[in-house]
Design goal:
Number of strands: 0
Largest sheet: none
Helix content: over 70%
Radius of gyration: 13 Å
Shape: globular
């Protein structure tokens, strides 16, 4: 298992990669999501947990700012499903 020495730093790296990547699709798309994980470098369970934490932060910010969060919520739902059913 890959060990992350500094979770905060790794979360920032994942957040930066997420922000630089292509936008999430408006509709849930598992094939896009799989490719997206590869694109942002999320390849293990620890990274997945950090991405889920980051997604929760992004969704809360979107709601506070009254921006649409549906694509983010769909991606988060898929991440949670993937984590519990494939790991």
């Amino acid at each position: 298992m890959f060990h992350v020495a500094d979770w905060s730093q790794r979360k920032l790296e994942i957040a930066d990669a997420f922000r630089q990547a292509a936008p999430l699709p408006a509709e849930a798309d598992p094939e896009f999501y799989k490719a997206f994980l590869l694109q942002i470098g999320v390849s293990n369970n620890q990274d997945m947990m950090l991405l889920i934490s980051f997604m929760n932060d992004v969704i809360m910010a979107a709601r506070r700012e009254e921006r649409p969060a549906t694509p983010l919520e769909s991606f988060l739902d898929w991440l949670r499903y993937k984590q519990t059913h494939e790991e």
